[in-house]
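[job 0412] stage=complex_fold ligand=adenosine-5'-triphosphate status=START
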Amino acid sequence: MENNYKNVLKSPRIHETPKTVIALGGDGIGPTVVNATDNILKGMKIRGLEIKSMPCGENAIETQGIAFPEETKKAVDNCDAVLFGATHKSAVQVIAYLRWGLGNYANIRPIKYFKGMNTAFKRELVENIDYTFIREGTEGMYAATGREGKLTNLIGKGIIYKPDIEKWTEDAIYAIRIISPKATDRIGRVACEVCVRRKNEGIGKGLLEIVCKPNVLRSQDGMFLKRIKNIAKKEYPELQVETYIVDDFAARLIRFPDYHDTIVIPNMMGDILSDEAAQIVGGLGISGSGVYGSSIPYFEPTHGSAPDIAGQKIANPIATIISASMMLDYLGYEKESEGLIKAIENTLIGGLDVEKNWKTLPKDAVPPKYQKNGKFGTTDDVADKILEEYKELET
Ligand code: ATP
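[job 0412] stage=complex_fold status=DONE, emitting structure tokens
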């Protein structure tokens, strides 16, 4: 599977059934949005698709003393895809397995404006936004998570000298950032594949945007940029390539909101900029993602466990439903995947007549006045409406 980058976007078992999905709700709003999505998937009556829920996160720690129990791991190891909600304090333990343990390195985070969604931007600036981040998910600043340490420990290793400590003080902490040619090439190729696919589907314009910080991180990001540019030039000559320094690109996301197409970017930079981009189209509540690379990818909302709204049943389930749509596409249920996105569109478009439709719109889709007066739908109201719209499309 390692070098099979062309196929990571589609399941190797695409023509086989049953296909098993393990739903991991996790913590905070995770179980709320995953259960709502699970109900939709079951209501869609997709032939050959089986969904099973398993514990992970704080709940699993309480009941079994561990965030990622053996039986959950076993179920994940034997499934076709994972639908993941969010974990809070134990996030590293769960994600460590889903990402590094399974080898899922390509984090695809689409950014799309849905008509009717509330945003701080003028509608004409956002209405044509439909682009995607291809974020490297295993390296960069998160490659050696947990291996930070005191700077003084590096003295004598030929990296840090006593005068440096005087400058930074004895309490200074180091972290490690790693970029390898292997991970750069594979994310570069996945990005090119996605870019070609978007162009063929008439969504993208065949523009690959390589974003990093090569002016400062000359060796690391210099390599990231150069290798991906070469891959695109040699293997995907039909693509147009543009390169950007990350800070300039952060500004460009705001200045030219609907210009972008396929953005390939190192781990932490992609984590940050995709959250920024999500706000432009209406917030984390509508930002889904898939993390591909192994034969068991996982699909999750970009947001976390949102402890501030946990238990209130007001979380927007759409980010998870978009992730589920990506999962269906991966599993070969392309028609169902498209239908689900259309059903989301048909639900959110209700925002154009908010007084009539607020009961089935999520909190972040309605204007602040409605939010303040509690005039919006619950997680289940929104999910029910999306399923209803999906069924309507089928008739
Ligand atoms: P964690 O520590 O688990 O990452 P967090 O609070 O740091 O949680 P997020 O969960 O990403 O980070 O939430 C950031 C903000 O976005 C919070 O104010 C949260 O309420 C809001 N938010 C996140 N997801 C949703 C959602 N699905 N619907 C509505 N609001 C959301």
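The first strand starts at residue 19 and ends at 26.
[job 0412] exit 0
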